[in-house]
Amino acid sequence: MRTLARSCGHIGDNDAVTSATRQPETPASSQLSTSFEPGGTPGVPPRLIATDLDGTLLRDDKSVSPRTIAALAAAEEAGIEVFFVTGRPARWMDVVSDHVHGHGLAICGNGAAVVDLHGGPGTHRFVKVRELARENALDAVRLVREAAPGTMFAVEQTYGFHQEPAYPKLHMEVPDVLAPAEELLAPGGVGSEQPILKILAHHPTLAPDAFLAVARLAAGAHVSITRSSPSALLEISGPDVSKASTLALCCAERGISQEEVVAFGDMPNDVEMLTWAGRSYAMGNAHPAAIAAASGRTVANDEDGVAVVIERLLGERP
User: Fold this and answer.
1) N or C: less crowded end of the chain, CB within 10 Å?
2) Is the pLDDT of residue 145 over 90?
3) What percent of the chain stands above pLDDT 90?
4) pTM of the prediction?
């Protein structure tokens, strides 16, 4: 696995942004089990908890409940590291910056960056960057556009966000540059001194899972493609970059085995992480692909599903 690490300094904050994508509707509580289904290998004490944010740790109003805050703090106090693992860029991590403990690291951009959150909003430090090469990004734009005419693109970098003029206003922020994707991604072009973390592809009419399947078939040999939105919005990263592969690197650096990892998620961009972890839980509001990948299931994000499992895990400890 090829990993590119570099120091990227600080990144500006964007107070208006609360979520990278719109989230799926959470089913009514009456449709969900009130207790979670265990999974994985019991008897292996967890050393690291890896949790997605939107639709998982965060409630639908983007808050972290008091119960969840207490559970995260109890896990850290028990010596279990907590990693936030999200598709969000670093500048959108203000929702959890007040709740970091210990190492304070988060995996952002679906594995494209490891970020130190200790400085708080506006002072995040990039510890590791696994960039999307411009050559691969250009190949993906060409191939996805050929396979799904009408696709519009945006570019996410460590320090900036750029988009095509026709790309819809999905992210509650003003792009730094408006230009065709080929111009945004050209060598020596806009922001060429900065790593590209991922590109976003939106289609106005295709169904989300159909768009994902088409794009993977067309460009999957050049990039990693996933989604976390209920709309036809894809997230495209470098080859082999995922939440799971970057989490595995972070765990290897700490001498933590995958059997000692407990993971939580709700969308297709969590599938690799849920599959890799020794124990994993799909939320009650999860996409079918996440449910199929996880070894267990908990209740919905609005019912503090992550906290429910952490409390049970801590109760199992001697």
Assistant:
1) C
2) yes
3) 69
4) 0.85
Count of all residues that appear for the chain in the document: 318
Structure tokens at 245: 């592969």
For 297-311, b/e burial (b = at least 16 CB within 10 A) is bbbbbbbbbbbbbbe
| Separation between Cα atoms, residue 192 and residue 197, nearest integer Å | 12
Q: 10 Å Cβ neighbour count for 107?
A: 28
Of 9-13, 179-183, 247-251, minimum mean pLDDT range = 9-13
Please list, in sequence order, all residues whose beta carbon lies within 8 angstroms of the beta carbon of residue 235, skipping any fewer than 6 positions away.
87, 110, 198, 200, 225, 226, 227, 228, 269
CB 198 within 8 A of CB 156: yes
Residue (of 300, 302, 307, 247) closest to 276 by Cα position: 247
φ/ψ region of 275 (left if φ > 0, alpha if ψ in -120 to 50, else beta) reads: alpha
Residue pointed to by tokens 């989604």: 227
Contact between residue 235 and residue 228 where contact means Cβ atoms under 8 Å apart: yes
pLDDT tens column, 44-82: 899 999 999 999 999 999 999 999 999 999 999 999 999
Average pLDDT, the chain: 85
Q: What is the secondary structure of 76-127 as a DSSP string?
A: HHTT-EEEEE-SS-GGGGGGTGGG--TT-EEEEGGGTEEEE-TT-TT--EEE
